[in-house]
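Changelog entry: the Spermidine/putrescine ABC transporter substrate-binding protein record was regenerated in this release. Current contents:
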Amino acid sequence: MKQLVRTFALVFVAAFALMILASYLNKSQGYSGGNTLTIYNWGDYIDPELLKEFEAETGMKVIYQTFDSNEAMLTKIEQGGTTFDVAIPSEYAISKMKEENLLVPIDHSKLPNLKNIDARFLNLNYDPNNQFSIPYFWGTVGIVYNPELVGDLTFDSWNDLWDPRLKNQILLLDGAREVIGMGLNSLGYSLNDTNEDHLQAALKKLSTLTPNVRAIVGDEIKMLLANEEAAVGLVWSGDASEIMDENDKLDYKVPEEGSNLWFDSMVIPKTAKNVEGAHQFINFMLDPDHAARNAEYVGYSTPNAEALKLLPEDISQDERFYPDETLTSKLEVYNNLGKKMLSHYNDLFLEFKMHSK
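Regenerated structure tokens:
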């Protein structure tokens, strides 16, 4: 028994020593909270050269991790197993994070570059006074189409999608808010509508679209549309930009009834170990030159008014991705519908998908 106890004690001491050694090595290599910045972002959603420049400028080591959905990001932050200093969720996820006390308030006095953000994109309903979030990119939901394959259809209206000439030619995003929202908008309703009669009317109308729906897909929608596997796709504007870079025959339109205005924003999660560094990074990304370069690399629309002036005119003057106020006034940010209503939206979407098979 004594030998067993002695052996256990030796193993415990060795394990403890290894923990101390690992901690020392992490600190010596830049992995302590104060000189490390851990960023949690969507994949391929930042110019990697900017991360290198931030490291060189601040002496911090950047650890960059990615997620593929707001839900995956929320789950990981809620679990708290990994600490993130900066995350970049979408607006409805920010609302949820606020409700669950998962965010650190942002100190605007540490962000002198905040003045560069277009006032249109500040103080929105999902985060009044930008207490917890700073806009990173923004965009719309609309229609990518191949003019050579759709005849005289221009998609000025969502209702063009129901044209019988598009039989088996439409790809849809695999997203409940996007598809149910499209159905609501096509009827003149808000994409945040919770009126059950309106929701059922949208579902009924969507069910009549199924002959035209080729597939409901995820990220592969970009490749499929670029390769002309379908004539039309419901996509986010950033994806539309990528698709059109691959195939310049394609075009993008936000229908006149309105659509979604989305934001991805920089936040500081509650478990952050380097709050000071997080503020430094956010301010770094708000620099006009950095924001302009990031917008060119990623292909999404920048909310940074000063950065917009630095972009080539073929980007900054492209109203498909920087629409005028006539259109933006008809766009809506997704409201946080609450768990019950969001679950109902998901159920309606599932019913539509099953009907589409």
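The two ends are 67 Å apart (CA to CA).
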